Amino acid sequence: MARNKKFPVKKRLARAGRRTRRAPVWVMSKTKGKIRTSIKRRSWRRSRIKP
Questions:
Q1: What pLDDT, on a 0 to 100 scale, did the predictor assign at position 29?
Q2: Structural domain 1-51, CATH architecture
Q3: Contact 40, 22 (CB under 8 A)
Q4: pLDDT per residue as tens digits for the range 1-51
Q5: What pLDDT shows up at residue 21?
Q6: CA dihedral of residues 22, 28, 34, 39 (deg, nearest 10)
Q7: Cβ neighbours of residue 43 under 8 Å, at least 6 residues apart?
Q8: Helix or strand or coil: residue 18?
C-alpha cells in the first residue's frame, strides 16, 4: 500500500483497526464467559480489507 493514502481508504483502514479489538469485559461477564472474542475480529495475515 502506498505511503500517502487517500482519505476514504485511510478512513476504512482506521475503522477496520478499531473493529479488531477484543470483546469488552462487561460482555464476557454478562454472558458468563461464553463470548470471548468479538464477532468482527480479523487478523491482518488471514483476511484482507477492500481498499
A1: 92
A2: Orthogonal Bundle (1.10)
A3: no
A4: 678 999 999 999 899 888 888 888 999 999 998 988 888 888 888 888 876
A5: 86
A6: -30
A7: 20
A8: helix
Burial code (b: 16+ CB inside 10 Å, e: under 16) for 12-44 equals eeeeeeeeeeeeeeeeeeeeeeeeeeeeeeeee
Residues 6+ apart with CB under 8 A from 12: 49, 50, 51
Q: Residue 30: its pLDDT value, please? A: 93
What pTM does this model have? 0.62
Parse the chain into domains and list their residue ranges: 1-51
- The cell for 43 is 487478523
Q: Which cell numbers in the block locate residue 29? A: 461477564
